[in-house]
Design brief:
6-stranded mixed sheet, Ubiquitin-conjugating enzyme E2-binding protein, 8 helices, UBQ-conj_enz_E2-bd_prot, alpha+beta, 7-stranded mixed sheet, globular, ubiquitin conjugating enzyme binding, ubiquitin protein ligase activity
Length: about 300
C-alpha cells in the first residue's frame, strides 16, 4: 500500500480488520485471526515535538508552559505511542502490535541464533538497548523491531502478508521507501532525505555495511514503460549518492539543513540502492548522472487494476 493508498491508511484499516498477518517468506502466523479488535492510525514521527511546540508558542497564550505539564497531557517530546493489547496500529511502512498479541517471533540484540521467545529475556543483558531485532521463529527472517520504550512489536509491511478484501500486490521495501519520501515532502516540504540504518549493529553477520543513501527527489510522479516491464509503471525520479555516517550526521545536525532523516533496516537500504542502480539502465546514458549525483527511478506502489 503506497502513495494514494499507503497514505490513506484509514481506508486500508477496514481491509485488515480482524485478519491474520504472517511471514511473507514461510507463511508462519504472527498475529492470529480475531486477535486484533481495533485498528488505529499512527501519527507522523514528529507529532510529539509539534504538539509541544504549539503549546509552548500559542499566539494567544504567552504564559510559560511547564514541560512536565505537557508530558502529563500525553504529548511531551519524551512521550511515545505505547502498544495496547487487542489494538493494531498502522503507518506507512509497518504495523505496531502488543507483544502479547504476537506469536511465532524471536527477539534478539544481534542474530537469530541468540534469539529468545520473549523480549524480556533478550533484554536481560542489554538494558541499554532501544531496539531489538525481531525474527520469524520458523525461517529466521528478520521481520521487524521491538521498541523498548514503547513496549511494542513493529512488523515491516514488506516482510509480512495480510488478508485483504482486494487482491492488491504486497508492497516491497523500496515501494515503502517511496511512500515515506512522498509523506516527508508533504509534511516538511523538503525533497532531500538521508536514509540511515534503523539500529546499531548488524543482525545478519553476512550483511555488508555500506554508506548511507542521500536522496533528492527530482520528480515524485514519473510514468514510464520499458521492454522489461509488462505494463506502464509509476516511479519517482531521484538523484542519489552514498555518504559516510559522519558526513550524514553533519548534514542532519546543521542548523541550516533542509535534509530529513529516514530510518530503515540496513537490508531495506541495500535493496533501495540496488533498485536505483538497476533503474538507471532504463535512462538514456546522458541522463544517468548529474554532477556528483547518480540518477535513478524508485518505483511507487500501485493498486491492482
Amino acid at each position: 500500500m503506497e502513495a494514494s493508498s499507503l497514505t490513506n491508511r484509514s481506508k486500508a484499516l477496514s481491509f485488515l480488520f480482524r485478519k491474520p498477518s504472517a511471514c511473507r517468506s514461510c507463511g508462519s502466523e504472527f498475529v492470529a485471526q480475531n486477535i486484533i479488535n481495533t485498528w488505529k492510525d499512527l501519527p507522523s514521527e514528529n507529532w510529539a515535538e509539534m504538539m509541544e511546540f504549539w503549546h509552548c508558542h500559542k499566539p494567544h497564550d504567552h504564559d510559560h508552559q511547564d514541560p512536565e505539564s505537557l508530558a502529563t497531557k500525553g504529548y511531551g517530546a519524551n512521550h511515545a505511542i505505547s502498544a495496547q493489547q487487542g489494538v493494531g496500529f498502522v503507518d506507512l511502512t509497518s504495523f505496531l502490535f502488543s507483544e502479547s498479541d504476537c506469536r511465532g517471533l524471536q527477539y534478539s540484540s544481534s542474530t537469530p541464533d541468540a534469539g529468545f521467545d520473549l523480549s524480556s529475556l533478550a533484554l536481560d543483558d542489554e538494558e541499554s538497548k532501544k531496539f531489538l531485532h525481531v525474527f520469524c521463529r520458523e525461517c529466521t527472517t528478520e521481520v521487524g523491531l521491538y521498541n523498548v520504550a514503547a513496549l511494542s512489536v513493529t512488523l515491516f509491511k514488506w516482510k509480512i502478508t495480510c488478508q485483504t478484501k482486494t487482491a492488491d500486490p504486497s508492497p516491497s521495501s523500496s515501494e515503502c521507501l517511496a511512500a515515506t519520501l512522498l509523506a516527508t515532502i508533504s509534511r516538511s516540504g523538503s525533497s532531500k532525505s538521508i536514509i540511515t540504518p534503523h539500529t546499531s549493529g548488524i543482525a545478519n553477520p553476512e550483511a555488508v555495511s555500506h554508506k548511507n543513501l542521500h536522496l533528492w527527489v527530482l520528480n515524485p510522479n514519473v510514468v514510464y514503460t520499458a521492454s522489461s516491464a509488462a505494463d506502464r509503471k509509476t516511479a519517482m525520479k531521484i538523484l542519489y549518492k552514498h555518504i559516510d555516517p559522519l558526513e550524514a550526521e553533519k548534514i542532519l545536525t546543521s542548523m541550516t539543513s533542509d535534509v530529513q532523516e529516514i530510518s530503515l533496516p540496513e537490508e531495506a537500504i541495500k535493496a533501495a540502492d540496488n533498485r536505483l542502480l538497476w533503474s538507471s539502465e532504463l535512462l538514456p546514458v546522458q541522463e544517468r548522472t548529474f554532477k556528483e549525483w547518480q540518477v535513478g527511478l524508485l518505483q511507487r506502489w500501485e493498486p491492482a487494476s
